[in-house]
Design a protein that fits this description.
Distance between the termini: 79 Å
Helix content: 25-40%
Number of domains: 2
Order of helices and strands: HEHHEHEEEEEEEE
Shape: elongated
Length: 203
């Protein structure tokens, strides 16, 4: 009888200890989740200028001086409205090298891909004669991971061009190089790894 009572008391003690441990772990997880949520809110507040529309895939990307001009966009409200970034915001995103010869950096829209990263499409004017549009990936803290040129337009003396088609499984980039009366087209395909890195597909 005494042995049975002892076993019951021991079992009750073990269960009680397990419940306390479980409650402690639950509280710890709750604190961690709350701290993570607070940190995410803080990061999102710091980078609120990146709150741009999410485009649905697939997307065809082209860049032209005519459609990038602010006067054109005002006359055509159906065109994409780009969000121009300040130099300070560009540097905050780790894209300061674009400012060496570039200006008018704009964030156009966001894309959704599997993985723990964010993907944006940005455009900037390089050397006053070239428009470059790039897909740029960032981690959750907006630290830049990688970038890929997906559209290009040059002034009349730069007759090369780049366009692309972006889907959930493939990024198809078409580069057209023109010289005198001849032209050459080179097609390349890329994918985005779950790390946020772009990888060229092998032919």
């Amino acid at each position: 009888m005494r042995k049975t009572v002892f076993n019951l008391l021991l079992l009750g003690t073990v269960i009680s200890c397990q419940e306390k441990i479980q409650n402690s772990e639950n509280k710890e997880n709750q604190y961690i989740n709350e701290a993570e949520a607070a940190r995410n809110d803080s990061v999102n507040a710091q980078f609120s200028f990146m709150n741009v529309p999410m485009e649905e895939l697939p997307v065809s990307e082209t860049t032209r001086f005519e459609t990038f001009d602010e006067a054109y966009r005002k006359k055509h409200p159906s065109a994409r409205v780009y969000t121009k970034l300040s130099n300070e915001q560009v540097e905050k995103l780790g894209l300061q090298k674009w400012l060496k010869f570039g200006k008018n950096v704009t964030v156009n829209y966001q894309l959704s891909f599997p993985g723990n990263f964010k993907t944006f499409v940005l455009t900037y004017l390089d050397r006053d004669s070239e428009l470059k549009t790039l897909m740029v990936t960032f981690d959750r803290n907006y630290k830049k991971i990688d970038e890929l040129l997906v559209a290009y337009d040059g002034s009349p003396r730069f007759s090369n061009s780049t366009t692309s088609s972006i889907s959930s499984s493939n990024i198809s980039v078409q580069n057209v190089y023109r010289a005198s009366r001849r032209s050459e087209t080179i097609n390349s395909s890329y994918l985005i790894r779950e790390t946020g890195k772009f990888e060229r597909r092998k032919k």
